[in-house]
């Protein structure tokens, strides 16, 4: 989600609020981190090593099965949104616009901040970035929070989302974006490695097709872009000429579901709440699907288990 304090001050999440850009720290170990990530995910060439009937081949086959099978739980197929008023967590059904209350997030015991961005893993774990850039693990059944080892850093405020490594695997990666840079978040070391440059503040989402999407509302016009996992280059772009003026936006969030890209947008104005737009990535058409949702969404999270098409 993002909240717009000024035209150039925007925050990311699969939603977030808009803070002043904070310079990120270059990660000199980015190349080593990439090597580690490759080693952790396994080398495809390893599956061809050894003779027929070798135990190593059996292990490789088993690993391939694990990486291509359906490892999702029902909890991880939904979209989750975070409201601003009481840091409330809901599951959201884009198909019919219904909200199901989960609970109020108690991540910040001092009450000094607000939720700002969200992501969800395939095994049903939620991650919520707070406005102080601390990252919390969230139980999606109770809304209980637990602090992680990430307590902010030189990368600054960021939006986040998961994408599978390609369309043929269930292995996925958390990507993060600040006002200038796309990065990879390593949940083992709780560190961020930079990938490439972005033109402005971005919110991220992804899917099981291996697609990583960025929402850049400060571009003129506002822009959706599919990003290359390796260098942040834009593989395809969707311009949104009818998107609200950035000066009118109070907060926004972003999530993939059912083959569409869903934008959660709150504009300034007394009594106003979030409007939900659906964008068809195949045509670029944007439709106001659920006006005045009743809450101010500041973060949206979805895992790569979300459906890639909507059932009739």
Describe the largest sheet: 5 strands, antiparallel
What is the N-to-C order of secondary-structure elements (H for helix, E for strand)?
A: EHHEEEEEEEEEEEEEEEEEEEE
Helix count from the secondary structure assignment: 2
Q: How do the strands line up in the largest sheet?
A: 1-17-18-19-20
Classified by CATH, the class is Mainly Beta
CATH architecture: 6 Propeller
Instruction: From the 3D structure, determine the CATH topology.
Output: Neuraminidase
Outline, from the CA principal axes? globular
Estimate what percentage of residues fall within beta strands: 35-45%
The total of beta strands comes to: 21
Cα Rg: 19 Å
**Which segments are poorly predicted (pLDDT under 50) over 5 or more consecutive residues?**
1-13, 16-65
First-to-last CA distance: 29 Å
Look at the helices and sheets and give the structural class.
mainly beta
Helix fraction? under 10%
How would you explain this protein's 3D organization?
There is one protein chain. This protein is mainly β. It has one domain (15-22, 82-302): 6 Propeller (Neuraminidase), CATH 2.120.10.30. It has helices spanning 30-41, 55-68, and strands at residues 15-16, 79-83, 88-93, 98-104, 115-120, 125-130, 134-139, 145-151, 159-164, 172-177, 181-186, 191-197, 203-206, 212-216, 222-227, 234-240, 249-257, 260-267, 275-279, 286-290, 297-302. The chain has a 5-stranded antiparallel sheet with strand order 1-17-18-19-20, with no helix packed on it. A 4-stranded antiparallel sheet has the order 4-3-2-21, with no helix packed on it. A hairpin with a 4-residue loop joins strand 11 and strand 12 (191-197). The longest helix is centred in the N-terminal third of the chain and has 14 residues, at 55-68.
């Amino acid at each position: 989600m993002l909240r717009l304090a000024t035209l150039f001050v925007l925050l990311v999440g699969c939603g977030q609020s808009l803070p002043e850009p904070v310079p990120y720290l270059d990660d000199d170990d980015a190349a080593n981190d990439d090597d580690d990530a490759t080693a952790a995910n396994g080398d495809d060439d390893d599956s061809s090593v050894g003779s027929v009937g070798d135990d190593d081949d059996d292990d490789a086959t088993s690993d391939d099965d694990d990486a291509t099978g359906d490892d999702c739980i029902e909890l991880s197929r939904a979209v989750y949104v975070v409201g601003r008023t009481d840091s409330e967590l809901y599951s959201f059904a884009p198909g019919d616009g219904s909200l199901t209350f989960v609970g109020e997030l108690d991540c910040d015991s001092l009450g000094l901040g607000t939720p700002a961005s969200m992501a969800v893993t395939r095994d049903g774990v939620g991650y919520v970035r707070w406005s102080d850039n601390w990252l919390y693990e969230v139980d999606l059944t109770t809304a209980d929070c637990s602090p992680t080892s990430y307590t902010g850093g030189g990368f600054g405020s960021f939006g986040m989302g998961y994408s599978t490594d390609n369309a043929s695997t269930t292995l996925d990666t958390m990507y993060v974006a600040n006002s200038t840079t796309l990065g990879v978040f390593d949940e083992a070391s709780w560190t961020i490695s930079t990938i490439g440059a972005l033109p402005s503040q971005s919110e991220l989402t992804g899917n099981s097709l291996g697609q990583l999407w960025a929402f850049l509302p400060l571009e003129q016009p506002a822009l959706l872009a599919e990003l290359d996992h390796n260098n942040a280059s834009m593989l395809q772009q969707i311009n949104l000429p009818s998107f609200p003026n950035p000066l009118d936006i109070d907060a926004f969030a972003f999530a993939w579901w059912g083959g569409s890209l869903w934008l959660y947008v709150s504009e300034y104005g007394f009594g106003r709440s979030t409007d939900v737009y659906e964008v068809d990535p195949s045509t670029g058409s944007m439709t106001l699907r659920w006006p005045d949702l009743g809450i101010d969404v500041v973060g949206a999270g979805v895992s790569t288990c979300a459906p890639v098409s909507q059932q009739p």
